[in-house]
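**Fold in tokens:**
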Amino acid sequence: MRIRVASACAGVAVAIALAGCGSSAKPTSSASAGSSASASQTTPVLPPAVDQLAAAEQPSLAQFPPANGRTLQQLGALVKASAQFGAATGTFTPGTRRVAFALNASSGALIYAPTAVYIASSPTTPAEGPFLAPADPMSVDPQYRSKQNSGPGGIQAIYAAQVPVAHKGTYTVLSLTRTAGGLIGAPGEIAVAGSSPIPDVGQRPPAIATDTSATVHHDTSLLTTRIPPEDMQAVSLDQVLGKQPIALLFSTPQLCISKVCGPVTDIAVQLQHQFGNQIAFIHEEVYVNNQPSKGLRPQLHAFHLETEPWLFTINRSGVIVARLEGAFGINELRQALETALR
């Protein structure tokens, strides 16, 4: 397999658009955003090209070749088929960072099987890895599924690996997926900036006011675009910051430029029923008055966010303990919530 670097979001455009790939900073119009959301729900969904989700949730290092000084080009020569790497994260600074992604066959159908990631500064330099990328289910129980969630038949899970990036620059990545027919390879790249203004783990978030029923004069349609509405606006962030654990979600289920705001909001709704008596769940919509033509809400500007969705969990001391960009599944969110309770 010859490594050819594609754009960070190349694979996503085939079947799903994952946040981190599209900015919400420059919407063309409310109508276009609404029609895009509608189209995402009516587009026929292909069955998975490889459907081994249970195995994909529990990959093991023994399933993947060690790097042993080999380059990504050399590791790519081991694969029997290729796939498209659809990045779900786009914000990276030096450190160990979450790389989330989907895998698509050439038909656009999604691939679910045990997967790991390798990374190098170029396709021809020694690679690091494998870094396991377990698939995290994105489905919810039927009672928590909104109208903006395609449910069964849509994206079933998202892959995510914790990958070390030592310095700023562009890195080439290669995912290898173990199937009965051999390894499937998918190349991509990530761009690492020297710094980012977005609040990170270990930092304190801005003590801003988030929207509640009172701030929108009890107009629920301005609080959330989810259908049916969720109940995550009882308190403002500045009222509970430093007093109790918080799960703060920025998403717009109906107007999302990506197609995952609905599913990740539903995941938060389901876990709110488990953790809601211990953690304050806060959902903030993305656009002023839910109209893309009016731009981003001031809360997103305060966090320096230009894409959606984003999830922050904050402990009772007011410190961010987990940060999830773009698509995430129920296991990652549950872990983030449990970390906030420690």
In short: The chain has nine helices and 15 strands.
